[in-house]
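Service request form, structural biology core

Requester: graduate student, group of Dr. S.
Request type: structure prediction, single chain
Budget code: on file
Notes: please return the result as structure tokens.

Sequence provided:
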Amino acid sequence: MGNILRVETPLTHEAVESLKTGDPVLINGVLYAARDAAHKRMVESIRKEEPLPFDLSGQIIYYVGPTPPKPGSPIGSAGPTTSYRMDPYAPTLIEKGLKGMIGKGARGDAVIEAMKRYRAVYFAATGGAGALISKTIKRAEVVAYEDLGTEAVRRLHVEDFPALVACDVRGNDLYREGRMRYRRV
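Core staff response, request fulfilled:
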């Protein structure tokens, strides 16, 4: 594992290309929070050729359904959601310009292929660390699908959000590599 890299959003082509599986990163800028229901609506909008609630170009979506904030806090606990639930929708969003995703757990083959083809990355966040992760979120506002409650799309302004590159643009996958290493032991 190398030095901790600082990553700014929106992600540039150069930034995405430079990231390698296993790189620890601190993300700064804007993330968009969205889960299954919001992903489904966004993909439906794309299929209907309707505008999306935000421009996907260079953006990162964090798979999170935060808890309500305590008084004076921008957000409650904000731990990552299991990513495979977004796998049916992720390739379409990646094709439309999404450059990064943050969640927990392995991704399916179609998502990894879309990341290779359209040059996107997947970051892993630490499950069970929602209260600590929420401290990196300085502002949060609902930008779409308010009726979804905790699953509404939120714009999150983050400072030093910790993550690990789990899948890079070359198709390297930390989860698969880890399983293979374990089996060789």
